[in-house]
Amino acid sequence: MSQDTSQSTVGVVADDLTGAGDCVVQFARAGWTSHLALGSALPVGERTAVAVVTDARPLDDAAARAATADAVRALVSAGTRRLYVKIDSTMRGSVAGQVAGALAAWRERVPGAFAVVCPSYPALRRTVSGGVLLVDGAPVATTTAGHDPVTPVRDSDLTALLPSAVRVPADDDARTLALRLAAAGSSAGTVVVDAVDDADLERLADAVALLGADAVPVGSAGLAAALAPRWGGAAAVPEPPRVAVERALVVLSSLNEVSLEQADELVRAEPGTHVLVPDPAVGADQVVASWLAGLGPGASPRTVLVRTPEPTETGRERAVQVASSLAGLVAAIAGRTRPDAIVLIGGDGSRAVLARLGARSVRVAGSVAEGVPLGHLEGGSAAGTVVVTKAGGFGTARTVVDVLTNLRSYCSHQEVTP
After folding, report:
1. For FRET with 185, which of 8, 159, 209, 401 sits at 20 to 30 Å CA-CA?
2. pLDDT tier at 326 (50, 70, 90 boundaries)?
């Protein structure tokens, strides 16, 4: 075995949009040209990382397997030589189906491939110890992820969530760990590994790099951050382009308790925030025209918050309808007010918004906070606009307020996290 430093295209397959952005920004930090692809055209190339979104998280395992396999095949056809499977750091959704689909497709290129699963993200207090996934030190099934309204996590043991998997201890040096992973992977196909801190992830990344294309890493942005420099990238990391952000459009599509608290805190912290909620009975253009008329000529609100309405019913079909209504309202606001930045909170709604804006991809440049990537829209009616994405289920009540503060400080030449 020898350390893999290939610098050809890395493909990231993610089960939702905000996770895709959070993962591919780790490659941007290591000097890779990084894109979040939103259409069928994949911007591949040397030292390029491309993330594609399957929207597989809420699907059943069979549908998730098919969607993930299709995405992997598309990346391979476009020239991908290294694969990273981005899953939720709290194991929400169809992770077993996603792993199965990724392996099925990747084995068409690498017959002996196996999955190495570690969702640990210590910077966000998600760790794996003794095969158990912990959030803030508590088993994940006992946290808010355990009663997520769409994809609740019913167990905290990774081998229970991935029934075909075996656990390999992570207390060896990288070379020994690589040998253990290869032996377990050849028999079981899927291996789960502990990581309680960044040093554990670094050692695991060394082991995965030694194994080359045979090992398919499956995890959150934590493992991606450790792998990115080991897979290649640029010697010097370019500085993200300077932006001037004052007027922000914040879009809340998540119903997670954490994100709802963040929206409430934003309204408290910025009393002048304008809050709009889509109304299916009234067209988006009419809602926006009425709102702007009430502001008076030339008014340009500093912060606008578009919120998902309180749910009256549940189900995937209803969620799609709500996301579509939300996207229509956001597109109408963006078209009339031209915000400097769009902050997207929650995966499904974010996906619908970017599709409605006609964006081809997001060129990911850096982060405004841990787990909160920043980029610029490419293509569509809002091309060039700064876009920030954040998953709904993490952060403190102040996270969105802090993100806006960081964005506006950057306008005054304060660095965004490179």
Report:
1. 8
2. very high
